[in-house]
Every structure is written in C-alpha cells, then in structure tokens.
Amino acid sequence: MSEERVDLLARGDGLRIERIISQGHVSPPDFWYDQELDEWVALVQGKAEIRFIDGRIKDLKAGDCLFLPAGLRHRVERTSDDPPCIWLAVHGRMTDKARP
After folding, report:
1. Strand ordering across the sheet containing 65-68
2. Are 75 and 33 in contact (CB under 8 A)?
3. Which fold has domain 5-92?
4. Contacts by 33-37 with C-beta closer than 8 Å and gap 24+?
5. Domain extents for the chain?
6. Cα 61 from chain centre
C-alpha cells in the first residue's frame, strides 16, 4: 500500500486546508490523534470510520462532514480503498464548537 497522500491547498494565519487521499489507510495501532487545532473534515468520496477515545464510532460516507474540536482524541479505524477516500480537512481555531 502506498502512503496516504496529503496536499496542502491553502494556509493562512492559524489556518490550514488540506486534501487527503486515503486508500485503506488507518491510524497505527494504539495511536490517537490529540490535535492542538480544531479540525473540520468533509468526506468527498468513499467511506470511513472514526473511533473516539470514549468508544463511540462515527461512520462517514461521501458527503458527510465532522467537526473535531481540539483535544478530542480520535483515530481512523477504516477507509475504503475502492473508491479511495478523498477528504477535505480544515484546521484552525473555529468559533463553532459543535460536538461530533
């Protein structure tokens, strides 16, 4: 399996926008994201599964989006490889702190 592709589309003062292409990629065993910045992701293509440290699981399909507040520990449990997952990810300090 090739590496997950991450393309930086734009960046600014405290803001980063990326396109991520995942083909069956998942978080490493026992790894949890614990990010300093808020993240809003939209799944443009494919299917994915996000697991939260409290055991909740969020299934995503093309067209779904998810807000991940800074410090919310989570991991990628599954991404489709056919079709590959295409994500749009926006990292920054958001004012809308909606919970997943």
Report:
1. 5-12, 15-22, 85-92, 38-45, 65-68
2. yes
3. Jelly Rolls (2.60.120)
4. 33/68, 33/73, 33/74, 33/75, 34/71, 34/73, 35/68, 35/70, 35/71, 35/72, 35/91, 36/70, 36/71, 37/70, 37/91, 37/92, 37/93
5. 5-92
6. 12
pLDDT, tens digit, 9 for 90 and up, residues 49-100 = 999 999 999 999 999 999 999 999 999 999 999 999 999 999 999 876 555 5
Residue type, 74: H
Q: Is the peptide bond before 83 cis (omega within 30 degrees of 0)?
A: yes
DSSP codes of every residue in 78-97: EE-BTTBEEEEEEEE--S--
d(CA 52, CA 56): 5
